[in-house]
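Entry:
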Amino acid sequence: MTTDELVQDLPPSAKLVLKVLEYNGGLTQKQIVENSRLSQRTVRDALDRLQEADIVEKDIYIPDARQNLYRLSIDEDDEEAEREQEAEVVLD
């Protein structure tokens, strides 16, 4: 399943948070709020939804262990490899 299929039913705020993470890489919740200009509560809800869908993973933010680092759990390379496998199946 591709990222697009996974996020299809998510609210626009979750899609925006996803795009911010795609563009910037791993960020803290505070950095996501600053980059997306969404409220802290909206970002928190979006991150929860993205984590439930296994699109975003939470890790320890080394410079400040009180914060979490959020990053995509689906790699573009993984998606490309998955597409190649699907293409091979179709060709067989």
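Strands lie at 27-28, 56-60, 68-72.
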